[in-house]
Specification:
The chain is mainly beta. Helices cover 15% and strands 52% of the residues. β8 (131-141) and β9 (148-158) form a beta hairpin.
Length: 361
């Protein structure tokens, strides 16, 4: 009996094992099927998105950066960029915008069919530039993913002629006096025939004279003189130096101070709380023997008024500047105009500014 029982048990055990294996395989297949079904929406979405993108314009700049290396400052640098439509719909170029000192012509065509190209000619003005220079050209189009495409033109600009300093600042000069500063023009190129053709400036009160360099090298020493005839107030001018190599520009500026002093030179009310006013004091003085009278004082806005009180008749005055209460909130800017009987300074202006109410950056 025992051998027979053992045989039956083995058959039952094998059957149960087969059932378990079948159940495990069925479960795995079901899970795989479910996972596959879960992936179907993503695949469907990707399939739907691909045709949509294929039917859109796509701007492409094959070579967006042009490096012209090292060239001499002065002559213009020219380059032509290419723009391609790599999409599946017409690309429309709206406009081309350049940074300062650079110009770009209209593209050779503004509507590009898929696969077509357009050319954009760019001119970089290197006049009076030196060192590393870089300019950006931006193309605006109907590409939904990249409506702005940037191109860059860059390089190093070498000079053959230098002026030191290039900015001549005289600061404050007393009326009726002369002052002179010097500018050294040197030739750093390799040629031997350098010469200055012409030196010119606009203001007759600024005189420029030329002398040879003491070391005998190519170039010149310029003496820039502010003459006694320069009137009261700020002045500026440009000295243009034309050479047989490249032009140079030297800027001249300063301020001629007359006998009248206004302090402070501008009035700041700061930040004034809503509805409130503010008062500031300005001192008006005149040096020298001649007396001066303030004929009139006015403000460019009704929100600010000024009153004049003599401290020392003909020499010193106190000007009370008042910001009226109830001035509307916001930024305040304007100026006071002071009329005098002084023939040298018949009109002086004093700027004022402030913020009324809460500050908004």
């Amino acid at each position: 009996m025992k051998p027979m029982l053992f045989a039956i048990e083995r058959r039952v055990l094998r059957a149960a094992t087969v059932v378990l294996i079948a159940a495990f395989i069925a479960t795995g297949m079901a899970a795989t099927s479910a996972a596959a079904q879960a992936d179907q929406p993503g695949k469907a979405a990707k399939t739907a998105t691909a045709p949509a993108q294929a039917n859109q314009p796509k701007i492409q700049v094959p070579e967006p950066v042009y490096d012209f290396g090292t060239v001499l400052s002065g002559p213009a640098v020219n380059h032509t960029f290419k723009v391609r439509n790599a999409g599946g719909a017409d690309l429309v170029i709206d406009r081309v915008q350049t940074s300062c000192g650079c110009t770009a012509a209209e593209p050779s065509k503004k509507r590009l069919k898929p696969g077509e190209e357009a050319e954009i000619a760019v001119t970089f003005d290197t006049h009076l530039q030196k060192g590393h220079s870089e300019r950006t050209i931006t193309v605006f189009s109907n590409d939904p993913r990249k409506p702005e495409a940037a191109m860059t033109i860059k390089g190093e600009l070498a000079v053959e002629v230098e002026a030191r300093p290039q900015e001549v600042f005289f600061g404050k000069i007393r009326l009726g006096t002369e002052q002179t500063l010097e500018v050294t023009v040197t030739y750093v190129g390799k040629g031997k025939d350098f010469k200055i053709d012409k030196i010119s400036n606009s203001r007759p009160e600024i005189k420029v004279t030329q002398a040879a360099l003491k070391d005998g090298k190519p170039g010149a020493m310029l003496s820039v003189t502010i003459l006694k005839s320069m009137p009261v107030g700020p002045f500026d001018d440009s000295i243009e130096i034309a050479t047989n190599r490249q032009p140079i520009l030297v800027h001249v500026s300063g301020h001629v101070a007359g006998p009248i002093t206004v302090a402070p030179a501008q009035v700041s009310f700061g930040i004034v709380p809503h509805g409130q006013g503010a008062v500031r004091i300005v001192r008006f003085t005149r040096s020298g023997a001649r007396a001066v009278q303030i004929i009139d004082i006015s403000s460019s806005t009704h929100s600010v008024v000024a009153k004049v009180d003599p401290v020392t008749a003909g020499t010193e005055y106190k000007i009370t500047v008042e910001l009226r209460k109830g001035t509307p909130d916001g930024q305040l800017r304007g100026q006071l105009s002071i009329k005098t009987d002084d023939p040298q300074e018949p009109l002086l202006t004093v700027p004022f500014y402030g913020i009324v109410g809460a500050f908004e950056g």
